[in-house]
Amino acid sequence: MLNPFRGFNAVFYKEALHTRRDFGTLFFSLIIPLLQMFLLGFAIDTNIRQINTVVYNADGRRESRELLDRLRNSDTFRLVRFVENDHDLTDAIVSGKFRVGIKIPVDYSDRLLHQMSAQVLVLIDGSDSSVAGQAINVTTSIGLDESLRRALSNSNAPFAVDMRPKLLFNPDSRSPNFFLPGLTAVLLLNVTTFLSAFSIVREKERGTLEQLFVTPVRPMGLLLGKILPYLIIGFFELCMILAFMRFVFLVPIHGSVLLLAILSLPYIFVSLSLGILISSKANSQAEAMQLAFLTILPSIFFSGYIFPRETMPRFFYILSYFVPATYFIDITRGIILRGASLIHLWIDAAALFTIGTLLLIIAAHRFQNKVIMA
Amino acid sequence: MTDSTQPAIVAENLVRRFGQFTAVNGVSFKVEKGEIFGFLGPNGSGKTTVIKMLTGLLPLSGGDATVLGLSVRSDPETVRENIGYMSQNFSLYSDLTVTENLTFYGRIYGLSSDRLRARMDEIVQLNGLAPYMNRLAAQLSGGWKQRLALGCAMLHEPKLIFLDEPTAGIDPVARRQLWDLLFELSAHGITFFVTTHYMDEAERCSHVAYIYFGKLIADGTPDSLRALPDVQPPGTYRVEITAPQVTRALRVARTIPGVRRATIFGQSMHALINDDLDLEHLREQLLKQNIVVAEIRPLAPSLEDVFVELTFKHQAEIEAARA
Fold first, then answer.
1. Scanning A64, A185, B220, B268, which has the fewest C-beta atoms within 10 Å of its C-beta?
2. What is the pLDDT, as a whole number, of residue B29?
3. Averaged pLDDT, B22-43
4. What is the pLDDT of residue B168?
5. B36 in Cβ contact with B182 (< 8 Å)
6. Which pLDDT value is given to residue A372?
């Protein structure tokens, strides 16, 4: 008599009817993540190229022009403007139109020809740390390289140590390859959390939830009946996002697509459970929306999606273990970029499944005790 | 499961507290099988709280209750299997059709598809929903929504149905039709627990109780309540006085010795007067003050009179206890 899943069939069937009848809303909630991916995929490029650069070449002879060519060829700098005095150089950077200013002193060529050390001034706008870092790296290494070549040009000795870095997995350092797998996690969370939270809060607003409580439906039957249709929809959404990523942004998937699809199920389950938990607290759709946004920000900032987890302060590093997106980003990047297999990723999937089940049990407990009615 | 002589509901000393506030304070009553039990009281007096306790939605802070012979404390799940419930906002899924709403509730109660089909036919027969089966619930008028909600609540053939303000916001014709339906079902042995604000609906109940700020202050058949000594003190009787200027007449009547209480009811006034004041004498007294009485006649107290009297008495007791 006390089947803990009592009512599952009825709720599942009814929920499927709701989504079919309200297909328009569903369609929009599924198409919006694709639009977001489209925009973000094109907008975000973390590789810094073609920094606007202003040059004051006080020397002007061959050696100085060779140096400028090397800077230009690095692809990091775009030499846009040439000025004739120090004041214009500083002013160009203060105005914000140029990130980097290069001054080659009047005696540059002379000093080089006399085997003396020549100085080149590089002014860098430090307000964007990643741009500044890139500018420092590239200019110092060009300087070092130039010095070495000049120092060694008289002897036939080879470079003593020749470092040859090779990028595995994302050889061109293409941003979409790195960002889109993470974005998948955020977009999926976004859609599914809202879907499940709204489906229960709507019933609260209409008063039908109160009615359901007076029937023999058991909380687990109700919640699972609500979750399952949206699990199917979430899965469909994932497939669309992946297809979009693969065929529009040409992100190669190195591992098994099937494995990725299967391992995404526990993540969709977590997101839906989170939505259900939110619905046990929120009494209106507006309230549910605020709570859902509260969960989305940590998923963006603490999951390793934007900032690497390894460099986080200890507290936030530990916190990141409680953010479901952390595990799923591990899974997507693992499979898509590194071709990882189940042996490497089962622990992430298990963590997701555990979190999801816990959330659902807490939610069911809250519904059981009718905390939400008081 | 239960023997037929057992009452449908037995509430013993029900108590429900929300923090410091006691919403229901020692309420006891019995509802016999087949009764239409009218549960009345002002807003916020604890009606819905009592329903929630009897349906196992709210745990009891004190006391005990059995519903259809089952304890709501120890067996709320089985209680819910066996009762029907219809809330004031009808709780239908507006984006589902009539058939789909009925099917959903049928499945919730675990009806087999054969039984569901048979029950749906019976219910549609009874409440005349047949022409609307494929219409969305959102497109039904208030009266039809209410019938559909009642249908959903009785698919599983409950012996007891709770109706929480079933006629709020419904037009008078639909209201009348619903009550006709309730009488018909009640004749088949179904017990109804109905809350309402309408006194005319209370008059139709076979058993009424009145809850006033957490306390039950009246419980009985409408006739037995009318005969209560507090309502009709010995040595008094009740009259209806019809006069053109009823508000002025009221002020005057209250000054006449022997008139204990007077209240306006529409175009007339109801007064409780001592036996020794006869009607002709009363008429003369009023005429002296230029009040021309059109009609004056003895009157049995209405349920509204009953509740007003009992509320006054209860208030007086509270104030006496305070002093």
1. B220
2. 94
3. 91
4. 81
5. yes
6. 44
CB B116 within 8 A of CB B135: no
Which of A214, A220, A222, A369 has the highest number of chain B CBs within 10 A, making it the mutation to test binding with B? A214
Token look-up 């008063």 returns: A207
B248-284 pLDDT tens trace:
888 888 888 888 888 888 888 888 888 888 888 888 8
Q: What is the longest distance spanned by two Cα atoms in chain B?
A: 76
Sheet with B21-31: strands ordered across: B21-31, B9-18, B62-67, B70-71
Question: Which pLDDT score is estimated for A157?
Answer: 66
Q: Which of A10, A22, A373 sits opposite B57 (nearest CB)?
A: A373
- Using the Cβ of B78 and the Cβ atoms of chain A, whether some distance falls under 8 Å is answered with yes
Query: Between A342-368 and A219-247, two packed helices, what is the crossing angle to 10 degrees?
Result: 140
Instruction: Read off the pLDDT of each residue in B286-291 and give the average, rounded to a whole number.
Output: 85
Q: To probe the interface with A, which of B92, B108, B112, B162 has the most A CB atoms within 10 Å?
A: B108
What CATH number should be reported for the domain whose range is B9-95+141-222? 3.40.50.300
Pick the CATH number of A51-152 from 3.40.50.920, 3.30.870.10, 3.40.1710.10, 3.40.50.300: 3.40.1710.10
Chain B residues close to A14, C-beta within 8 Å = 93, 96, 100, 104
Residues of A within 8 A of B18 (CB-CB) are 374
Contact B48, B88 (CB under 8 A): no
ipTM: 0.80
Chain B nearest CA to A10, separation (Å): 5
Portions of chain A given CATH number 3.40.1710.10: 51-152
Q: Which residues of A touch B87 (CB under 8 A)?
A: 207, 210-211
With a cut of 70, say whether residue B3 has pLDDT above it.
Answer: no
pLDDT < 70 positions in chain A: 1-2, 45-46, 154-160, 170-173, 370-374
d(CA A52, CA B14): 79
Domain B233-300 has CATH 3.40.50.720: no
